[in-house]
Design brief:
This protein is α+β, with helices and mostly antiparallel strands and 214 residues long. The chain has 11 helices and 9 strands. 30% of the residues are buried.
Length: 214
């Protein structure tokens, strides 16, 4: 027998199949979903994917987990990750991710989730599992990886940068304090990425620049 309490055993981020599994024998499950949305208990982010309101389920959804699940395979990176690590001064409201699929952006009631494509061979390097306070986890780029990812998608691939261009991009475009940045970077991680990015002009020179300063 279905009850609202059955839904509260689910995670705050939930897909259509998960919801249906908690409504066995219900004659009109789609009608029930619409009712939950009308009452504000359930928020539709895209077709087949939802989050529960914290008031209803008693737990807050995770923007990072939503980012991983909304479109995949993907991991949190770029400006959102750099803000998460405190490497850029601005607060970032768009949840930015890297995907091995095509570029995609979702405008949702809880915010914008933006995905940028990265070639498959570069996709998994420097990605790790981050634990949340509630024991759940999500995939996110390391500091080094998030920065290199940003240079991959942000800067013109046809141009050949100089070391001064790299510093200018960090300080002027991204408003990063380079002296503080290098204190937080891991030279081993940079070394591990160096060979893979040798044919990417901006990321390759960025890695070289950072390794010389770490």
């Amino acid at each position: 027998m279905y009850s609202l309490d059955d839904l509260k055993t689910l995670q705050p981020e939930v897909d259509y199949q998960g919801l249906m599994a908690q409504m066995p024998g219900l004659s009109h499950p789609r009608r029930k979903l619409k009712e939950l949305q009308t009452k504000g208990h359930l928020i539709r982010l895209k077709k087949g994917f939802y989050v529960f309101s914290s008031e209803f389920i008693g737990r807050a959804y995770s923007p990072e987990i939503v980012g991983n699940l909304m479109y995949g395979p993907s991991y949190i990176s770029l400006e959102y990750a750099l803000s998460y690590y405190g490497l850029i001064p601005e607060r970032v409201n768009v949840v930015t991710s890297i995907t091995s699929q095509k570029n995609k952006s979702f405008q949702t009631p809880i915010g914008v989730f933006d995905y940028k494509h990265l070639a498959g061979q570069l996709y998994p390097i420097g990605v790790s599992v981050k634990a949340q306070d509630d024991g759940r986890s999500f995939l996110m780029a390391s500091r080094e990886k998030a920065l290199v990812d940003l240079f991959c998608v942000k800067f013109d691939k046809s141009l050949s940068p100089s070391p001064s261009d790299i510093r200018e991009a960090l300080e002027d475009d991204l408003r990063i304090n380079v002296n503080e940045l290098v204190k937080q970077l891991n030279s081993v991680s940079l070394e591990a990425m160096k060979e893979s990015y040798r044919n990417r002009k901006w990321p390759h020179l960025l890695i070289k620049f950072l390794m010389e300063n770490v």
